[in-house]
TrEMBL record:
A biological-process GO annotation: phosphatidylinositol phosphate biosynthetic process
Protein name per the record: PIPK domain-containing protein
Gene3D superfamilies: 2-Layer Sandwich, Phosphatidylinositol Phosphate Kinase II Beta
CDD domains named among the record's database cross-references: PIPKc_PIP5KL1
Domain PIPK: 27-449
DNA-binding in keyword set: no
Keywords from the named record: ATP-binding, Kinase, Nucleotide-binding, Transferase
GO molecular function: 1-phosphatidylinositol-4-phosphate 5-kinase activity; ATP binding
Origin superkingdom: Eukaryota
GO cellular component: plasma membrane
PANTHER family referenced in this protein's UniProt entry, alphabetically: PHOSPHATIDYLINOSITOL 4-PHOSPHATE 5-KINASE-LIKE PROTEIN 1, PHOSPHATIDYLINOSITOL-4-PHOSPHATE 5-KINASE
Amino acid sequence: MSQTETEMPANRRSRTMKRRLWGGLRQQWKLLGLFEIDQQHEFYSLTQMMKEGLSAAVQNTIDNPPSDELSEDDFKMEVTQVHEGFQMQTFSGPVFSSLRHSLGMTEKEYQHSLASEGCYLQFISNSKSKADFFITNDKRFFIKTQNKREVKFLLSNLKIYLEHLESYPHSLLVKFLGVHKIKIPHQKKKYFIVMQSVFYPDDRINARYDIKGCQVSRWTSPAPEGSHVIVVLKDMNFEGQYITLDDQGAWLVRQVEIDTAFLQTINVLDYSLLLAHQPLHNDERDQSHNLATLIMRTKNSVNPGSSPSHTGLPCVPGAVLEEDSALLVSEMDRGSDSVRVTETHSGDGLIPPQELQGGAARAAPADSELQEFQAQNRRLLPNFKNPLHVIDGPDLRYFVGIIDIFTVYGFKKKLENLWKRLRYPGQAFSTVSPPAYCHRLCQWVQDHTK
Protein backbone atom coordinates (compact mmCIF):
# COMPACT_ATOMS: atom_id res chain seq x y z
CA MET A 1 0.00 0.00 0.00
CA SER A 2 1.34 3.45 -0.89
CA GLN A 3 2.16 6.14 1.71
CA THR A 4 -0.78 8.23 0.51
CA GLU A 5 -3.18 5.36 1.06
CA THR A 6 -1.62 4.68 4.50
CA GLU A 7 -2.38 8.23 5.56
CA MET A 8 -6.03 7.99 4.48
CA PRO A 9 -8.70 7.65 7.16
CA ALA A 10 -9.82 4.05 7.58
CA ASN A 11 -13.33 4.64 6.21
CA ARG A 12 -11.93 6.38 3.12
CA ARG A 13 -9.48 3.51 2.51
CA SER A 14 -12.40 1.11 2.79
CA ARG A 15 -14.40 3.04 0.16
CA THR A 16 -11.36 3.11 -2.14
CA MET A 17 -10.88 -0.66 -1.82
CA LYS A 18 -14.56 -1.25 -2.52
CA ARG A 19 -14.41 0.91 -5.64
CA ARG A 20 -11.39 -1.03 -6.86
CA LEU A 21 -13.08 -4.35 -6.10
CA TRP A 22 -16.24 -3.29 -7.91
CA GLY A 23 -14.20 -1.92 -10.81
CA GLY A 24 -12.39 -5.24 -11.09
CA LEU A 25 -15.66 -7.13 -10.98
CA ARG A 26 -17.13 -4.91 -13.68
CA GLN A 27 -14.05 -5.51 -15.81
CA GLN A 28 -14.45 -9.25 -15.28
CA TRP A 29 -18.08 -9.08 -16.43
CA LYS A 30 -16.97 -7.24 -19.55
CA LEU A 31 -14.58 -10.06 -20.37
CA LEU A 32 -17.26 -12.77 -20.29
CA GLY A 33 -19.00 -13.59 -23.52
CA LEU A 34 -18.33 -13.62 -27.26
CA PHE A 35 -15.85 -11.31 -28.94
CA GLU A 36 -15.07 -10.97 -32.62
CA ILE A 37 -11.46 -11.81 -33.37
CA ASP A 38 -10.70 -8.86 -35.62
CA GLN A 39 -7.31 -7.64 -36.87
CA GLN A 40 -6.53 -5.97 -33.52
CA HIS A 41 -7.18 -9.17 -31.56
CA GLU A 42 -4.23 -11.15 -30.16
CA PHE A 43 -5.56 -14.37 -31.73
CA TYR A 44 -6.29 -12.94 -35.17
CA SER A 45 -3.16 -14.37 -36.83
CA LEU A 46 -3.65 -17.80 -35.23
CA THR A 47 -7.31 -18.08 -36.16
CA GLN A 48 -6.62 -17.00 -39.76
CA MET A 49 -4.08 -19.82 -39.98
CA MET A 50 -6.63 -22.21 -38.46
CA LYS A 51 -9.22 -21.21 -41.06
CA GLU A 52 -6.81 -21.69 -43.94
CA GLY A 53 -5.51 -24.99 -42.57
CA LEU A 54 -8.96 -26.39 -41.79
CA SER A 55 -10.27 -25.46 -45.22
CA ALA A 56 -7.38 -27.30 -46.87
CA ALA A 57 -7.81 -30.31 -44.56
CA VAL A 58 -11.51 -30.64 -45.42
CA GLN A 59 -10.72 -30.14 -49.10
CA ASN A 60 -8.41 -33.13 -48.84
CA THR A 61 -11.29 -35.33 -47.68
CA ILE A 62 -13.50 -33.92 -50.44
CA ASP A 63 -10.85 -34.86 -53.01
CA ASN A 64 -10.13 -38.21 -51.32
CA PRO A 65 -13.40 -39.42 -49.79
CA PRO A 66 -13.14 -42.30 -47.30
CA SER A 67 -14.03 -45.79 -48.43
CA ASP A 68 -17.25 -47.48 -47.37
CA GLU A 69 -15.42 -49.47 -44.68
CA LEU A 70 -13.02 -47.68 -42.35
CA SER A 71 -9.71 -49.45 -41.80
CA GLU A 72 -7.13 -49.46 -39.03
CA ASP A 73 -4.99 -47.24 -41.24
CA ASP A 74 -7.80 -44.64 -41.34
CA PHE A 75 -7.70 -44.39 -37.54
CA LYS A 76 -3.90 -44.02 -37.56
CA MET A 77 -3.70 -41.62 -40.49
CA GLU A 78 -1.83 -38.35 -40.03
CA VAL A 79 -1.72 -35.85 -42.90
CA THR A 80 0.55 -32.80 -42.78
CA GLN A 81 -0.14 -29.88 -45.13
CA VAL A 82 2.40 -27.09 -45.53
CA HIS A 83 1.16 -23.50 -45.75
CA GLU A 84 2.94 -20.19 -45.87
CA GLY A 85 4.14 -19.56 -42.33
CA PHE A 86 2.75 -22.71 -40.70
CA GLN A 87 1.98 -26.41 -41.01
CA MET A 88 -1.33 -28.12 -40.22
CA GLN A 89 -1.50 -31.76 -39.19
CA THR A 90 -4.81 -33.64 -39.35
CA PHE A 91 -5.38 -36.84 -37.37
CA SER A 92 -7.73 -39.67 -38.44
CA GLY A 93 -9.20 -37.52 -41.21
CA PRO A 94 -11.26 -40.26 -42.95
CA VAL A 95 -12.78 -41.31 -39.61
CA PHE A 96 -14.01 -37.83 -38.72
CA SER A 97 -15.21 -37.28 -42.28
CA SER A 98 -17.29 -40.43 -41.99
CA LEU A 99 -18.68 -39.29 -38.64
CA ARG A 100 -19.62 -35.89 -40.06
CA HIS A 101 -21.42 -37.65 -42.90
CA SER A 102 -23.32 -39.86 -40.47
CA LEU A 103 -24.58 -36.68 -38.78
CA GLY A 104 -26.09 -35.51 -42.05
CA MET A 105 -23.34 -32.94 -42.62
CA THR A 106 -21.75 -32.44 -46.04
CA GLU A 107 -18.05 -31.67 -46.31
CA LYS A 108 -18.76 -28.49 -48.27
CA GLU A 109 -21.16 -27.31 -45.57
CA TYR A 110 -18.59 -28.05 -42.86
CA GLN A 111 -15.82 -26.34 -44.84
CA HIS A 112 -17.98 -23.28 -45.44
CA SER A 113 -18.62 -22.80 -41.70
CA LEU A 114 -14.97 -23.26 -40.76
CA ALA A 115 -13.58 -21.01 -43.49
CA SER A 116 -16.24 -18.35 -44.01
CA GLU A 117 -15.16 -14.76 -44.52
CA GLY A 118 -16.53 -13.76 -41.13
CA CYS A 119 -14.08 -13.69 -38.23
CA TYR A 120 -14.04 -16.41 -35.61
CA LEU A 121 -15.43 -15.47 -32.23
CA GLN A 122 -13.61 -15.92 -28.94
CA PHE A 123 -15.66 -17.32 -26.07
CA ILE A 124 -14.49 -16.29 -22.60
CA SER A 125 -16.38 -18.03 -19.83
CA ASN A 126 -16.21 -18.35 -16.07
CA SER A 127 -14.78 -21.85 -16.50
CA LYS A 128 -11.50 -22.78 -14.81
CA SER A 129 -10.26 -24.36 -18.03
CA LYS A 130 -7.01 -22.96 -19.41
CA ALA A 131 -8.02 -23.84 -22.94
CA ASP A 132 -8.80 -21.25 -25.58
CA PHE A 133 -12.28 -21.42 -27.08
CA PHE A 134 -13.09 -20.18 -30.55
CA ILE A 135 -16.42 -20.35 -32.35
CA THR A 136 -17.11 -20.20 -36.06
CA ASN A 137 -18.83 -17.03 -37.19
CA ASP A 138 -22.17 -18.85 -37.58
CA LYS A 139 -21.74 -20.22 -34.01
CA ARG A 140 -22.21 -23.79 -35.21
CA PHE A 141 -18.79 -25.23 -34.32
CA PHE A 142 -16.47 -24.86 -31.34
CA ILE A 143 -12.71 -24.98 -31.75
CA LYS A 144 -10.93 -25.71 -28.50
CA THR A 145 -7.23 -25.98 -27.79
CA GLN A 146 -6.22 -29.18 -25.98
CA ASN A 147 -2.99 -30.50 -24.56
CA LYS A 148 -1.17 -33.41 -26.16
CA ARG A 149 -2.29 -35.88 -23.50
CA GLU A 150 -5.97 -35.06 -24.10
CA VAL A 151 -5.60 -35.44 -27.85
CA LYS A 152 -3.84 -38.79 -27.48
CA PHE A 153 -6.58 -39.93 -25.10
CA LEU A 154 -9.32 -39.02 -27.59
CA LEU A 155 -7.57 -40.69 -30.52
CA SER A 156 -6.85 -43.83 -28.51
CA ASN A 157 -10.55 -44.12 -27.63
CA LEU A 158 -11.90 -42.94 -30.98
CA LYS A 159 -13.02 -46.37 -32.16
CA ILE A 160 -15.07 -47.18 -29.06
CA TYR A 161 -16.46 -43.63 -29.05
CA LEU A 162 -17.75 -44.21 -32.59
CA GLU A 163 -19.08 -47.63 -31.62
CA HIS A 164 -21.05 -45.97 -28.83
CA LEU A 165 -22.53 -43.44 -31.25
CA GLU A 166 -23.39 -46.27 -33.61
CA SER A 167 -25.14 -48.21 -30.85
CA TYR A 168 -26.90 -45.07 -29.56
CA PRO A 169 -27.35 -42.64 -32.48
CA HIS A 170 -29.24 -40.20 -30.25
CA SER A 171 -26.42 -40.02 -27.69
CA LEU A 172 -25.95 -36.74 -25.83
CA LEU A 173 -22.15 -36.98 -25.96
CA VAL A 174 -20.51 -34.00 -27.67
CA LYS A 175 -19.75 -34.74 -31.32
CA PHE A 176 -16.03 -34.44 -32.09
CA LEU A 177 -15.60 -33.55 -35.76
CA GLY A 178 -11.85 -33.15 -36.19
CA VAL A 179 -8.48 -33.26 -34.41
CA HIS A 180 -5.58 -31.12 -35.62
CA LYS A 181 -2.18 -29.70 -34.72
CA ILE A 182 -0.83 -26.39 -35.95
CA LYS A 183 2.91 -25.72 -35.99
CA ILE A 184 4.15 -22.14 -36.34
CA PRO A 185 7.93 -21.47 -36.49
CA HIS A 186 9.44 -20.43 -33.14
CA GLN A 187 6.15 -21.04 -31.32
CA LYS A 188 4.78 -23.91 -29.27
CA LYS A 189 2.71 -26.44 -31.21
CA LYS A 190 -1.01 -26.13 -30.62
CA TYR A 191 -3.37 -29.10 -30.63
CA PHE A 192 -7.05 -28.38 -31.10
CA ILE A 193 -10.33 -30.16 -31.71
CA VAL A 194 -13.45 -29.14 -33.60
CA MET A 195 -16.78 -29.92 -31.93
CA GLN A 196 -20.41 -29.39 -32.73
CA SER A 197 -21.85 -26.69 -30.46
CA VAL A 198 -24.50 -27.99 -28.07
CA PHE A 199 -26.02 -24.49 -27.89
CA TYR A 200 -26.78 -24.03 -31.59
CA PRO A 201 -28.52 -21.91 -32.67
CA ASP A 202 -28.32 -19.76 -29.56
CA ASP A 203 -30.35 -16.73 -30.70
CA ARG A 204 -33.02 -16.94 -27.99
CA ILE A 205 -31.31 -18.94 -25.24
CA ASN A 206 -31.99 -17.19 -21.94
CA ALA A 207 -30.07 -19.38 -19.47
CA ARG A 208 -27.05 -21.70 -19.67
CA TYR A 209 -25.85 -24.19 -17.05
CA ASP A 210 -22.82 -26.41 -16.52
CA ILE A 211 -23.93 -29.31 -14.31
CA LYS A 212 -21.65 -31.76 -12.48
CA GLY A 213 -24.08 -33.08 -9.89
CA CYS A 214 -22.34 -31.67 -6.79
CA GLN A 215 -22.35 -28.63 -4.50
CA VAL A 216 -18.79 -27.53 -3.67
CA SER A 217 -17.80 -24.52 -5.82
CA ARG A 218 -20.91 -24.99 -7.93
CA TRP A 219 -22.43 -21.51 -7.66
CA THR A 220 -21.81 -18.62 -10.05
CA SER A 221 -23.00 -15.07 -9.60
CA PRO A 222 -25.59 -14.37 -12.33
CA ALA A 223 -25.01 -11.56 -14.80
CA PRO A 224 -26.29 -8.14 -13.72
CA GLU A 225 -29.91 -7.41 -14.57
CA GLY A 226 -30.28 -6.32 -18.19
CA SER A 227 -26.71 -7.30 -19.05
CA HIS A 228 -25.88 -9.04 -22.32
CA VAL A 229 -22.94 -10.81 -20.70
CA ILE A 230 -22.98 -14.59 -21.20
CA VAL A 231 -22.57 -16.34 -17.85
CA VAL A 232 -22.66 -20.12 -17.63
CA LEU A 233 -24.39 -20.92 -14.34
CA LYS A 234 -23.83 -24.03 -12.23
CA ASP A 235 -25.61 -26.67 -10.17
CA MET A 236 -26.57 -24.53 -7.20
CA ASN A 237 -28.00 -21.86 -9.50
CA PHE A 238 -30.43 -24.47 -10.85
CA GLU A 239 -31.79 -25.54 -7.46
CA GLY A 240 -35.58 -25.23 -7.25
CA GLN A 241 -35.94 -25.63 -11.03
CA TYR A 242 -36.77 -28.65 -13.19
CA ILE A 243 -36.19 -29.86 -16.72
CA THR A 244 -39.85 -30.18 -17.65
CA LEU A 245 -40.22 -32.61 -20.54
CA ASP A 246 -43.35 -34.62 -19.71
CA ASP A 247 -43.23 -37.80 -21.85
CA GLN A 248 -39.61 -37.31 -22.93
CA GLY A 249 -38.31 -37.00 -19.38
CA ALA A 250 -37.78 -40.75 -19.02
CA TRP A 251 -35.86 -40.78 -22.32
CA LEU A 252 -33.46 -38.10 -21.04
CA VAL A 253 -32.82 -39.92 -17.76
CA ARG A 254 -32.14 -43.16 -19.61
CA GLN A 255 -29.80 -41.57 -22.16
CA VAL A 256 -27.74 -39.87 -19.47
CA GLU A 257 -27.43 -43.27 -17.77
CA ILE A 258 -26.24 -44.86 -21.04
CA ASP A 259 -23.74 -42.12 -21.87
CA THR A 260 -22.26 -41.84 -18.38
CA ALA A 261 -21.94 -45.65 -18.17
CA PHE A 262 -19.81 -45.44 -21.32
CA LEU A 263 -17.67 -42.70 -19.77
CA GLN A 264 -17.23 -44.86 -16.70
CA THR A 265 -15.80 -47.65 -18.88
CA ILE A 266 -13.04 -45.31 -20.13
CA ASN A 267 -12.31 -44.24 -16.53
CA VAL A 268 -13.12 -40.53 -16.82
CA LEU A 269 -14.74 -38.03 -14.47
CA ASP A 270 -15.33 -34.30 -14.17
CA TYR A 271 -17.37 -34.13 -17.36
CA SER A 272 -20.30 -31.72 -17.50
CA LEU A 273 -23.89 -31.86 -18.57
CA LEU A 274 -24.47 -28.66 -20.52
CA LEU A 275 -28.03 -27.41 -20.24
CA ALA A 276 -29.73 -24.36 -21.73
CA HIS A 277 -33.29 -23.37 -22.45
CA GLN A 278 -35.40 -20.90 -24.36
CA PRO A 279 -39.16 -20.32 -24.46
CA LEU A 280 -41.15 -21.98 -27.22
CA HIS A 281 -43.19 -19.77 -29.51
CA ASN A 282 -46.89 -20.58 -29.72
CA ASP A 283 -46.53 -21.95 -33.26
CA GLU A 284 -43.65 -24.19 -32.10
CA ARG A 285 -45.87 -25.65 -29.39
CA ASP A 286 -48.63 -26.33 -31.91
CA GLN A 287 -46.22 -27.76 -34.46
CA SER A 288 -44.86 -30.37 -32.08
CA HIS A 289 -48.29 -32.04 -32.05
CA ASN A 290 -48.95 -31.68 -35.77
CA LEU A 291 -49.45 -35.02 -37.56
CA ALA A 292 -47.19 -34.16 -40.49
CA THR A 293 -44.47 -33.05 -38.09
CA LEU A 294 -44.78 -36.25 -36.05
CA ILE A 295 -44.48 -38.39 -39.16
CA MET A 296 -41.41 -36.48 -40.34
CA ARG A 297 -39.87 -36.73 -36.87
CA THR A 298 -40.51 -40.48 -36.93
CA LYS A 299 -38.83 -40.74 -40.32
CA ASN A 300 -35.82 -38.79 -39.11
CA SER A 301 -35.58 -40.92 -35.98
CA VAL A 302 -35.97 -44.44 -37.33
CA ASN A 303 -34.14 -44.14 -40.64
CA PRO A 304 -31.36 -46.74 -40.33
CA GLY A 305 -29.08 -45.14 -42.90
CA SER A 306 -25.45 -45.71 -42.05
CA SER A 307 -23.22 -45.51 -39.03
CA PRO A 308 -20.12 -43.55 -38.09
CA SER A 309 -18.03 -46.51 -39.26
CA HIS A 310 -19.84 -46.97 -42.58
CA THR A 311 -20.47 -44.27 -45.11
CA GLY A 312 -23.74 -44.00 -46.98
CA LEU A 313 -26.94 -42.36 -45.90
CA PRO A 314 -27.02 -40.42 -42.65
CA CYS A 315 -28.07 -42.54 -39.66
CA VAL A 316 -28.99 -39.60 -37.50
CA PRO A 317 -30.55 -36.36 -38.46
CA GLY A 318 -29.85 -34.21 -41.36
CA ALA A 319 -31.53 -34.30 -44.71
CA VAL A 320 -33.46 -37.58 -44.65
CA LEU A 321 -35.07 -38.45 -47.95
CA GLU A 322 -38.69 -39.52 -47.80
CA GLU A 323 -38.10 -42.69 -49.78
CA ASP A 324 -35.41 -43.73 -47.29
CA SER A 325 -37.77 -43.85 -44.34
CA ALA A 326 -38.78 -47.46 -44.91
CA LEU A 327 -39.32 -48.12 -41.21
CA LEU A 328 -42.35 -45.87 -41.09
CA VAL A 329 -45.46 -48.01 -41.64
CA SER A 330 -48.74 -46.16 -42.11
CA GLU A 331 -52.17 -47.70 -42.05
CA MET A 332 -55.54 -46.09 -42.41
CA ASP A 333 -58.15 -46.46 -39.73
CA ARG A 334 -61.26 -45.14 -41.44
CA GLY A 335 -63.46 -46.00 -38.53
CA SER A 336 -61.77 -43.45 -36.28
CA ASP A 337 -62.18 -39.69 -36.10
CA SER A 338 -58.81 -39.24 -34.46
CA VAL A 339 -55.22 -39.78 -35.46
CA ARG A 340 -52.91 -41.95 -33.43
CA VAL A 341 -49.17 -41.81 -34.01
CA THR A 342 -47.39 -44.50 -32.05
CA GLU A 343 -44.24 -42.81 -30.83
CA THR A 344 -42.66 -45.97 -29.53
CA HIS A 345 -43.46 -46.59 -25.99
CA SER A 346 -42.69 -45.58 -22.82
CA GLY A 347 -41.15 -47.83 -20.22
CA ASP A 348 -37.69 -47.42 -21.69
CA GLY A 349 -38.01 -43.68 -21.86
CA LEU A 350 -39.50 -43.41 -25.34
CA ILE A 351 -42.52 -41.34 -26.16
CA PRO A 352 -45.98 -42.89 -25.68
CA PRO A 353 -48.78 -42.68 -28.26
CA GLN A 354 -50.50 -39.34 -28.69
CA GLU A 355 -54.04 -38.71 -29.90
CA LEU A 356 -54.51 -36.04 -32.54
CA GLN A 357 -57.78 -34.73 -33.95
CA GLY A 358 -58.61 -34.07 -37.58
CA GLY A 359 -57.53 -37.11 -39.63
CA ALA A 360 -57.48 -40.87 -39.88
CA ALA A 361 -54.02 -42.45 -39.97
CA ARG A 362 -51.98 -44.73 -37.80
CA ALA A 363 -48.18 -44.80 -38.05
CA ALA A 364 -45.78 -47.13 -36.28
CA PRO A 365 -42.44 -48.76 -36.99
CA ALA A 366 -42.50 -52.47 -37.78
CA ASP A 367 -41.98 -54.77 -34.80
CA SER A 368 -38.33 -55.70 -35.36
CA GLU A 369 -37.31 -52.13 -36.08
CA LEU A 370 -39.37 -50.95 -33.10
CA GLN A 371 -37.42 -53.26 -30.80
CA GLU A 372 -34.14 -51.93 -32.16
CA PHE A 373 -35.45 -48.38 -31.84
CA GLN A 374 -36.18 -49.01 -28.16
CA ALA A 375 -32.90 -50.82 -27.51
CA GLN A 376 -30.98 -47.86 -28.91
CA ASN A 377 -33.04 -45.47 -26.77
CA ARG A 378 -34.06 -43.38 -29.74
CA ARG A 379 -36.66 -40.65 -29.57
CA LEU A 380 -38.63 -38.61 -32.06
CA LEU A 381 -36.21 -35.92 -33.13
CA PRO A 382 -37.44 -32.37 -33.63
CA ASN A 383 -37.36 -30.87 -37.11
CA PHE A 384 -34.47 -28.66 -36.11
CA LYS A 385 -30.92 -27.71 -37.09
CA ASN A 386 -29.32 -29.39 -34.07
CA PRO A 387 -31.80 -32.16 -33.24
CA LEU A 388 -29.51 -34.50 -31.30
CA HIS A 389 -29.04 -31.89 -28.58
CA VAL A 390 -32.52 -30.33 -28.66
CA ILE A 391 -35.51 -31.58 -26.67
CA ASP A 392 -38.81 -29.72 -26.65
CA GLY A 393 -40.86 -29.68 -23.48
CA PRO A 394 -44.38 -28.23 -23.23
CA ASP A 395 -43.12 -24.67 -22.69
CA LEU A 396 -39.34 -24.63 -23.14
CA ARG A 397 -36.86 -25.86 -25.70
CA TYR A 398 -33.87 -27.47 -23.97
CA PHE A 399 -30.34 -27.83 -25.31
CA VAL A 400 -28.55 -30.75 -23.63
CA GLY A 401 -25.12 -32.32 -24.15
CA ILE A 402 -22.25 -33.96 -22.28
CA ILE A 403 -18.82 -32.32 -22.72
CA ASP A 404 -15.26 -32.34 -21.32
CA ILE A 405 -14.63 -36.09 -21.32
CA PHE A 406 -10.82 -36.01 -21.06
CA THR A 407 -10.12 -36.16 -17.31
CA VAL A 408 -8.85 -39.63 -16.43
CA TYR A 409 -9.06 -40.87 -12.84
CA GLY A 410 -5.34 -41.39 -12.37
CA PHE A 411 -2.91 -40.93 -9.47
CA LYS A 412 -3.23 -37.12 -9.30
CA LYS A 413 -7.02 -37.23 -9.23
CA LYS A 414 -6.98 -39.89 -6.54
CA LEU A 415 -4.76 -37.64 -4.41
CA GLU A 416 -7.11 -34.74 -5.09
CA ASN A 417 -10.03 -36.89 -4.01
CA LEU A 418 -8.26 -37.70 -0.72
CA TRP A 419 -7.46 -34.02 -0.07
CA LYS A 420 -11.03 -32.89 -0.80
CA ARG A 421 -12.46 -35.55 1.49
CA LEU A 422 -10.43 -33.96 4.28
CA ARG A 423 -11.15 -30.40 3.16
CA TYR A 424 -14.93 -30.84 2.59
CA PRO A 425 -16.11 -33.58 4.98
CA GLY A 426 -19.67 -34.69 4.22
CA GLN A 427 -19.94 -32.42 1.17
CA ALA A 428 -20.25 -33.37 -2.50
CA PHE A 429 -17.32 -32.23 -4.65
CA SER A 430 -16.45 -32.98 -8.27
CA THR A 431 -13.38 -35.20 -7.87
CA VAL A 432 -14.72 -38.65 -7.09
CA SER A 433 -14.22 -42.05 -8.72
CA PRO A 434 -15.81 -42.59 -12.17
CA PRO A 435 -18.54 -44.94 -10.82
CA ALA A 436 -19.47 -42.44 -8.10
CA TYR A 437 -19.38 -39.54 -10.56
CA CYS A 438 -21.58 -41.43 -13.02
CA HIS A 439 -24.13 -42.37 -10.36
CA ARG A 440 -24.28 -38.88 -8.90
CA LEU A 441 -24.86 -37.10 -12.22
CA CYS A 442 -27.56 -39.61 -13.16
CA GLN A 443 -29.22 -39.02 -9.80
CA TRP A 444 -29.12 -35.26 -10.35
CA VAL A 445 -30.83 -35.60 -13.73
CA GLN A 446 -33.46 -37.93 -12.31
CA ASP A 447 -34.15 -35.58 -9.39
CA HIS A 448 -34.41 -32.51 -11.63
CA THR A 449 -36.44 -33.92 -14.52
CA LYS A 450 -40.20 -34.17 -14.64
